[in-house]
Amino acid sequence: MYEIFSEQILILDSAIRLSVPLLLACLAGLYSERAGVVDIGLEGKMLGAAFGAGAVAYVTGNAWLGLLAGIAVSVALALIHGFASITNRGNQIVSGVAINFLAAGLTAVLGQYWFSRGGKTPPLTDGGRFPEIDFPFAEQMMDVPVLGLIYSELLSGHRLLVYIAFLAVPLTWWILFRTRFGLRLRAVGESPAAVDTAGISVSWLRYRAVIACGILCGFAGSYLSIAISSGFGLNMTAGKGFIALAALIFAKWRPVSAMYTCLLFGYLEAFAINYEGKEIYLIGEVPSQFFQALPYILTVILLAGFIGKAIPPKAAGVPYLKERS
Amino acid sequence: MSAGQLPRWVDLGLIPFLNLAAAFLVSGLVVVLIGENPLEAVKILVWGSLGYGEGIGFTLFYATNFIFTGLAVAVAFQAGLFNIGGEGQAYVGGLGVAFACLALDHYVPWYVTLPFAILGSALMGAAWAFIPAWLQATRGSHVVITTIMFNFIAASFMGYLLINVMKKPGSMQSETRTFEDGGRLPFLNDIFPSFGFGYAPVNLSFFVALAACVLVWLLIWRTKLGYEIRAFGQNATAAVYAGMPPVRIIVVTMLISGGLAGMMAINEIMGSQHRLLSDFVTGYGFVGIAVALMGRAHPVGIVFAAILFGMLYQGGAELSFEMPSITRDMIIVIQALVILFAGALEHMFRPTIVRLFTPSRALETKEA
Fold first, then answer.
1. What mean pLDDT comes out for the span A276-284?
2. Crossing angle, helix B330-338 and helix B284-294, to 10 degrees?
3. Using 50, 70 and 90 to split pLDDT, how confident is the model at B283?
4. Is residue B43 in some structural domain?
5. Which of A258, A269, B81, B350 is the most buried (most CB within 10 A)?
6. Domains identified in chain A and CATH numbers
């Protein structure tokens, strides 16, 4: 019995690690889509950030500078998306596709040019990577039954960005639902004309939402290259941006639900890794591809309206045209 | 700023040209950043894709893929739908081709297999588009999101089939057995040796693609269904008011779109690889979006745009060979910029152009 428990704790522990990039990207998308800018370029922004962070952290040997660089790259890509979809009122889906391609291409081309390692960045030195944070008395608590395992394995020993990601959830909730900025941000995603009538700039609000999205994607990408692994690898986001998008819909564009959804998707991934090729109790062997597809299948079922209904912000994807002509 | 304000040649010629020029200009800047000469790069790219027979052959081979995926996106565009699931639909379409070829290649020549392969790929591609289409039509789930999800589901599904079910026994690679002659389309080099296509895999499916262009044109502009699709795309409310059934239009359009995307597999699987293998689509479905945008969702435009992207693919390969500091991924950068400038920033130059083409007197009278 205790062995099953400790095994589950280890799976949960890796579920947390795996859910962090999803959670950060999901919250990023939340700001953008709540303000009415649909963003399928989360993947590209994460990838760009992962590359920027990996490259700068290697060159400077400083994880913090790496993080800043990651955020800068991601915000720059977010501003391109903003320029296309807010200022030029272009198609937001097309712009998102372009951002994804741009990040995939540029990281590979520049990575090869700068480091000549087939697109990878060189492995980081100690200072270039965020260290694991051990909670006080984690060693000693290890021997306490049940609680000790939860404290030392599950809660302690993650890297800084993990804790930042989970702190970002209440922060996002507070910003969106308890501040004036948040109220306006949600309003501009539902009825931009009303916001405009109140004398508030629709464009400036949406730009701020897109920048917030860029910052969070920057954290997500940096986590991949300078926290959970040591350096950037080609296409290292591997669809995580799209799982985050699925999670955003699954969570019905709400921050706390987003956290639970990302934990669920992270758990599915950890579970699949743990049980790869092994028999699952009472079920038998389940192909790992099934677990890979499960987040997407669940999201489609949700979108079909069979488990609650996911209703996006009303003005999502619709460019705002101030004057009629 | 309605479209009618500009002469037709400006709308269909000058503005797309400017957008494309901007995309190539920025690509050139990237080349400069890497420390290479962009003009030299353009020279290598054009020579590599059009300068000799084998290069042209490769260009046309890639163009065949892009014609199919571009048509797929374009047909959906006409109905106001955005099908970005071409990637998954083409991948599953490969299954249809493989079924036909694996079943028939021992017994009949390729021209008997081909109709079954076309049918199989179109059916499988359409089937993969059906659920997103149905959900969009009846439950209002956005087709963009569901088709993205289905791309990933396709990757897992095909991965499972290729590793666990269809894999050639004893092989390490996740691929089926190689087809016999009955499952191989003839290469154009064997039909027209005088063109000197050499080892380029361009094959008979190039003509299938051109035929598909003609059929799509006929469908969209010369049939009742096409009229309904266009009417629905222009103004869904008006179309429904005129008595056109929205569920049927959405589902049928998406099935045609998915079928066209699936047919891309004929070129790759039956035309070139001669076996079903994992990840053979590698972005062709997404490039279809750029092709449809540049081709203004019209078959003629799509053929030109597909050849342009075929040139980029083939020329880019040549470029990475001649200039080792520029990797093949440079093509992806150029594609991204084309999608950005020709798609998302489509209207960036428009206000300036409108100002240039509006006689100043007309402006004065309007303001007065």
1. 71
2. 40
3. confident
4. no
5. A258
6. 2-303 (1.10.3470)
